[in-house]
Give the backbone structure.
Amino acid sequence: MKLTSREFDRIAGLSMLEFSEQEKADLLEDLNKLLSEAEKLKNLEVSNEEPLINPSASIESGQLREDSPRKPLPLQIVLENAPVKRESFVVVKKRAYVK
């Protein structure tokens, strides 16, 4: 699988990320190298290997972690870390849906 420039632009738009043309070219090359390496994993024979862990075993056995209520972060701390804020709200940039 190879990621095209158009697919990269779509993913970046959905992620609300912006890149210069040089950053885009570098990242696209790196991502395609990573995807190429991941493709090699499809050819590994693992049918005779025992899994080290089974992520769904805890769900099947009903052993989920305790859902305990916690206090949320204080609003003042959240606002101190927000890059843009207005009154008691964090302001985020509205982006158009990228096709």
Remarks:
- The two ends are 20 Å apart (CA to CA).
